[in-house]
């Protein structure tokens, strides 16, 4: 991977519209790099849960499961990407699935850059200074959401109004996908239980 592609997510931080346009039309993005950024976010998020100072953190460090955090973040990431892609295919969005994955992955960079410094800062703040900690994370989250909004709108070539409608439909699609997955898992479990009961009964009869 070239140095230009490695540094490109930092360019997008301050030039999101131009940057995401280049991702869609000039292949400036990288799906592996997007997934790497997401992995770094999952690590920094887990570190924050485990090691943030007691002033801002009431989670028992022993209860933190980094692997569960990793699975949850990646599951939500792919759920959003697939749901958005399925909706935008119906409304003539120009972005491909890999463009959506790249946009969402690159958009998490502000969170990566904020969580570790915020965790370190939380170790030295007093009880009445936690507002600075939440300010850092709040700015990072707002930046992340803004980048996703601009990125999705740019790669699909949507207007502001169409983008709002598409996001609403995306969240509905996410709920539908979750429902279908749960339904399939329930059916599989019922089928497994049925065959297991038949097998058990045959054993007793023999």
TrEMBL record:
Stretches that traverse the bilayer: 33-52, 72-91, 103-125, 131-152, 164-188
Membrane topology category: Multi-pass membrane protein
Domain of life: Bacteria
Domain (Yip1): residue spans on this chain: 11-180
Places the protein is found: Membrane
Key words of the record: Membrane, Transmembrane, Transmembrane helix
Listed Pfam families: Yip1 (PF04893)
Any single Gene Ontology cellular-component annotation: membrane
Main location as per UniProt: membrane
Protein name: Yip1 domain-containing protein
